[in-house]
Amino acid sequence: MSKTIYAKCGFVCSSCAAYKDNVKNKKQRQRGSEAWKKFYGFKLKPENMYCDGCQVPDEKNKSKLMKYMRTCPIRVCAFKNKIKTCAHCSEYRQCMYNLVIFYSGVDRKSVEKRVGALISDRDYHDFVEPFENHKHLRKIRSSIKKKDIKKPAPVEVKPKVTPFPEKLRGSKKQMAAYKKLHTVLAKIAAMTGKTYGQEAVLKKRRERLFKMLWTFGCYGQFKKKPRAHLYLDGSTYLNQKITGHYGTVINYCKTLKTFGVNCKIIPRIKKGWLTPMGWLRSKSKREKQAPWYMTISFGQKAGGTVGVKFLKTNVTKLKKKHGKRGIRYLMNARMI
User: 251-287, pLDDT tens digit by residue?
Assistant: First the structure.
C-alpha cells in the first residue's frame, strides 16, 4: 500500500487527480480535468494535470500548478515556518476557521449542492475526499505527539487608524453615531493575524470589507423603509470586482454583522439568481439587470440611521477629494 502524502493544508496529494503518480496516461488526465471542471468549476487542460505535490519546494517542483501553489497563504506560511502541515502548528485551532476551512475546505455535501446532484462513491473517493482537509488535519493532529507541534514565527502588523476628528461637527446624537461608525472602521482595520497565513487571509478580508463599504457609500441609494438602509443593485456591485461568489460574500456579511453592520443579498426571483457553482448572476433570462440586489443597514452598535447616512456622506467626500485613492483613507478610518 502506497504512503499517504499530505499537503500543508491537509489535502491528500497522493490521492489527488493531478498528482504525478495518478496521471500516467491521457485517459487519467482527461478524467481528472473533466471532474475538476464539473465539481469545482476549475478549468485546467488535461495536459496541465501534473503536480509533484505541495511538500516539494518551489525550486524543485515541476508542477504545472505552481502559479496557484506559490500564492497559497497556507503553503507559504508552512514553508516559512518549516512546519510539515497545519496540524503540526501551535496556531492550528485558531487557523481552522480563519484559514483552513474558510479558505479551502470542502466536503461531499457542499460539492453535491454545488452540482445539484448526488455524486457516485467512486467520484467522491477520487475527487472530493482528498480535499476534505479539515477532516484529515484532525486525524493528523490526534496522532502526533506534543513535541512535534511547532510554534510559528509571529507576524506584527500595526494597523494605521486615523483618530476620530474632533473638528467634526453635529448634534449630540450625530456625534455619538459618528464615533460608533469610526469605531467600526477602526476595528475592521485592526483585524490582523498572528501568523503569515492568518495575516494573508485577513488582509484580503479587510480589503474586501472596506471595498464593500466604499461601494455602498459611492453607489448606494438611501431608503427610509422598511428600515433605513442603502440599496445597491447587483450589477453595480459585480462591476466593482470584489467577489461574486455567494458563499464568500455571505461570510463577509457575517463578519460585518459582528460589528453591527447588517449586509444582505436579496433575490428578485425564486430560482436562477445563482449559477450551479454558487456564483451570483449578472443578469437573468428575462431582464438585463442582476436578479438580486444588496442592502446595508446599521444597528445601534454601528450608529444606526445616522451612521449609515454618514457612511455615504463620508465616502462621497473622500471620493471627491482623493478620487479612487479615497478608499485608502477609508481603510484608515478617515472621516472628513
Answer: 899 999 999 999 999 999 988 899 877 899 998 877 7
Q: Is the peptide bond prior to 226 cis by the omega test (within 30 degrees of 0)? A: yes
Does the reported pTM lie above 0.70?
A: yes
Q: How far apart (Å, rounded) are the C-alpha atoms in residues 128 and 121?
A: 10
> Strand, coil or helix: what is 155?
coil
Distance CA 311, CA 27 (A): 56
Taking the C-alpha atoms of 256, 262, 268 and 274 in order, what is their torsion angle to the nearest 10 degrees? 20
SS3 for 79-142, per residue? HHCCCCCHHHECCHHHHHHHHHHHHHCCCHHHHHHHHCCCCCHHHHHHHHHHHCHHHHHHHHHH
Domain map (residue ranges) of the chain: 13-148, 172-330
- Beta strands at 261-267 and 229-233: parallel, antiparallel or unpaired: unpaired
Q: Round to whole Å and give the CA distance between 31 and 43.
A: 12
- How far is 196 from 331, CA to CA, in rounded Å? 20
The sheet with strand 229-233 has its strands ordered as: 221-223, 229-233, 292-298, 261-267
Q: Helix, strand, or coil here: 173?
A: helix
- Copy the grid coordinates of residue 242: 470584489
Phi (first) and psi of residue 16, to 5 degrees:
-70, 140
What are the two backbone dihedrals, phi and then psi, of residue 330, each rounded to the nearest 5 degrees? -65, -40
